[in-house]
Amino acid sequence: MGVIGRLVGSPGAVSALGDAAKGVAEVFLPSATRKMELSAEAQMAALRQLGEEYQHPALNWFDRLVNGLNRLPRPLLAFGTLGLFTYAMVDPEAFARRMVGLSAVPEPLWWLLGAIVAFYFGARETHYFRTRGVVSPFAAQAPAEENAALADWRQG
After folding, report:
1. What is the helix (H) or strand (E) element at residue 102, kind and residue range?
2. Which pLDDT band, with edges at 50, 70 and 90, does 156 fall under?
3. How far apart are CA 126 and CA 90, in angstroms?
4. For residue 59, what are the contacts with CB-CB under 8 A and spacing of at least 6?
5. Can you tell me where the transmembrane regions are (predicted)?
6. pTM exceeding the 0.85 threshold for the entire prediction
7. pLDDT in tens, 112-128
8. Where are the domains of the chain?
9. Rounded to whole angstroms, what are the CA distances from 71 to 76, 77, 112, 124, 143?
């Protein structure tokens, strides 16, 4: 039996003394392990809450309407551009008059239109970029031939 054992008494008392010292030390310096555990618990609780919010989306008529409107700009821009080419071929004089009218639009308004379109499509691209899964370029590649040294090492 050691000196501490003689002073304190039984081995259970030594454990109690050690636990007390640990408790006092954690008052001055928090346990890093416990801090990480609490952080992980908080993160998991937040993820569970987020998952519950999107578990059963309640789509009412307004949500479906907004989803439909969000899908319109790209086809409208594409078909509108094709329509302009068709209009220019069908009635070139009327098309020229309309283009003269467009040339009267001030330049800052064109910049504003460009910014709106760029932010709209940029936000869509960013959304799809962030929600796609990360795929490793090495996942689909199989080794061309087996490494003999590695096979020997695996066999032991």
Report:
1. helix 92-103
2. confident
3. 39
4. 67
5. 72-90, 102-123
6. no
7. 999 998 888 888 788 77
8. 1-57, 72-130
9. 9, 11, 22, 11, 43
